[in-house]
Specification:
Low-confidence stretches of chain B: none
Largest sheet of chain A: none
CATH topology of the largest domain in chain B: Rossmann fold
Number of domains of chain A: 1
Mean pLDDT of chain B: 88
Structural class of chain A: mainly alpha
Mean pLDDT of chain A: 93
Number of helices of chain A: 10
Shape of chain B: globular
Order of helices and strands of chain A: HHHHHHHHHH
Largest interface: A-B, 24 and 32 residues
Strand content of chain A: under 5%
CATH superfamily of chain A: MetI-like
Number of strands of chain B: 14
Number of domains of chain B: 2
CATH class of chain A: Mainly Alpha
Order of helices and strands of chain B: EEEHEEHEHHHEHEHEEHHEHEEHE
Structural class of chain B: alpha/beta
Radius of gyration of chain B: 23 Å
CATH superfamily of the largest domain in chain B: P-loop containing nucleotide triphosphate hydrolases
Strand content of chain B: 25-35%
Oligomer: heterodimer
Helix content of chain A: over 70%
Largest sheet of chain B: 6 strands, mixed
CATH architecture of chain A: Orthogonal Bundle
Chain lengths: 214, 335
């Protein structure tokens, strides 16, 4: 049994970290785009902004369990199977990217408008403002957002248990839910709680260390 | 001043903010000429349009009509990329300092150089020079959050000067600072103007700032320029209603003194620090009531103003005016 749980933990870490990384690869640019093209943004493009906003909202409205099932054909096309950790990564990335985009958007919008104006007064281009002002100034908030994103992805990944995706979620559902082995379910839940605490703590510390406002 | 070259000319400048159900005229037909090397003040109450005006000068806001001519270049004809370059020759500082909070002081001063593509080593060398000039060499590695307001503004000034601008735009630069700090920042601006020959445009709602450092002033009211002139002239003989209001800022209770005639006496520094009012009372043998006084002693000379209530009978009044005239003390009747 401990071997199964250890494998579950490793699978969960693998799925969560890979999905978070890929989710950010998609969500970060989307979030930047949402801020930059906003009608108050540094390069307003209202129709593009609305378009992205609608797509993001639609994807965020679909419950993850349903998204996971609906994306099965696509998942099979991408990774060749609908079972196992790799198959879970596909819906996790697609489900989390719009969420991450909103997290990034709200972090970037916290950056003081005056600082952006100061950069403009020095002749900064929109790209320079994004990479030299928005992202660095929002760094502490982006890190806090990342902790939230990773924890949310961890929560979603547990739902993968219903479709045999592996990881702690599968163990909790297979042993605890289907076979009524409450103790195993409790153990996995406790492990999940510890992992969540760990991610949040890491996020808090990194954010604090990155913040020069004291 | 006459042979000086104009550095900024605003011709028929207008700015309208339009949205779905909103139409706001922020600026209307603004015409101003600012000369190279002067310290020019723009004063107005909040909402008068002065912040929009300063943002039109460096095209952070695009005017909806009229022209901005900077250094003989019509900015309205420039493509965006050229505008970015032009902005490097116009530094700007702000009420809230607007420093990058996640960068230390040195990195903040290097920032505009980084944007302009200057190599890091060279940028740092320049930044250290500027920090020395504003008196913050020892704070190079500190973060803005560790500095006081005055120090932050000094960093902002160093940053604004990094790209060797011809003009420094100051948008309410001292409004968030206490009086002592304000004075030291204004002193620094004066030094910069004198030593580097940089033209400075000061936007403020405080007459005291204008008095302290500006040579000329434009008064803006309800989106228009109400009055332009030498600071002394405008201060002594304000023509527009808004100019009077600003000069008497904080004295709005003057209207509450009803009936009697009032007289404003101006101390322009030409009068030496003698007890003017006391002598006048003794000589004219008539008491006056001082209703408002705001004077300061600069190098033994009196600057400022006083409002006195005049006696009711005409002959005493005449004696007072005669006294003021023979002693060459500028005054005006306030009704």
């Amino acid at each position: 049994m401990p071997a199964i749980i250890a494998k579950g933990i490793l699978e969960t870490f693998y799925v969560v970290l890979v999905s978070s990384f890929m989710g950010y690869a998609m969500g970060l640019p989307l979030g930047i785009l949402l801020v930059v093209t906003d009608k108050e943004g540094i390069a307003p493009k209202v129709s593009l902004n609305r378009g992205i906003g609608v797509v993001v909202n639609i994807l965020r409205s679909i419950p993850f369990v349903i998204l996971m099932v609906a994306l099965m054909p696509f998942t099979r096309f991408v990774v060749g199977t609908t079972l196992g950790p790799n198959a879970l990564i596909v819906p996790l990335v697609i489900g989390s990217a719009p969420y991450i985009a909103r997290l990034v958007e709200s972090s970037l919008k916290e950056v003081d408008h005056g600082v952006i104006e100061a950069a403009r007064s020095m002749g900064a281009t929109p790209a320079q403002i994004v990479f030299k002002v928005l992202l660095p100034e929002a760094r502490p908030s982006l890190i806090m957002g990342a902790a939230i994103a990773v924890i949310t992805i961890l929560g979603y990944s547990a739902m993968g248990g219903f479709v045999g995706a592996g990881g702690l979620g599968t163990i909790a559902i297979n042993y605890g839910y289907y076979r009524y082995q409450v103790n195993i379910m409790l153990v996995t839940v406790v492990i999940l709680i510890i992992i969540v605490q760990g991610f949040q703590e890491i996020g808090n510390r990194l954010s604090k260390r990155a913040d020069k406002r004291l | 001043m006459a042979e000086r070259e104009p550095i900024i000319e605003l011709i028929g400048l207008g700015k309208v903010f339009e949205s779905k159900n909103n139409y706001v005229k922020a600026l209307e037909d603004v015409n101003l000429t600012i000369y190279e090397g002067e310290i020019f003040g723009i004063i107005g109450l909040s909402g008068a349009g002065k912040s929009t005006l300063v943002r039109c000068i460096n095209y952070l806001e695009r005017p909806t009509s009229g022209k901005v001519i900077f250094n003989k270049i019509d900015l309205s004809e420039l493509p965006e990329r050229e505008l970015l370059k032009i902005r490097r020759s116009m530094g700007m500082i702000f009420q809230q300092f607007n420093l990058l909070m996640q960068r230390n002081v040195l990195q903040n001063v290097c920032f505009p150089l980084e944007i302009a593509g200057v190599a890091q080593k060279e940028a740092q060398k320049r930044a250290y020079e500027l920090l020395k000039m504003v008196g913050l060499s020892d704070k190079a590695k500190a973060y803005p959050a560790q500095l006081s307001g005055g120090q932050k503004q000094r960093v902002a000034i160093a940053r604004a000067l990094a790209t060797n601008p011809k003009v420094l735009l100051c948008d309410e630069a001292t409004s968030a600072l206490d009086p002592t700090t304000t004075r030291s920042i204004l002193e620094l601006l004066r030094e910069i103007n004198r030593n580097l020959g940089i033209t400075i445009i000061v936007i403020t709602h405080e007459m005291s700032v204008i008095e302290e450092i500006c040579s000329r002033v434009a008064i803006i009211d309800e989106s228009r320029i109400a009055e332009v002139g030498d600071v002394e002239e405008v201060f002594m003989r304000p023509k527009s209603k808004i100019a009077r209001k600003l000069i008497f800022s904080g004295v709005n209770h003057i209207e509450h003194f009803e009936g009697e005639d009032k007289c404003r006496i101006i101390f322009d520094g030409r009068t030496s620090f003698e007890p003017v009012i006391a002598n006048m009372v003794l000589e004219c043998r008539t008491p006056v009531n001082i209703m408002f006084a705001d004077t300061k002693d600069i190098d033994g000379k009196a600057f400022g103003q006083m409002v006195i209530q005049l006696p009711e009978d005409e002959s005493s009044k005449k004696r007072i005016f005669a006294y003021l005239e023979t002693h060459k003390i500028p005054y005006e009747e306030v009704i």
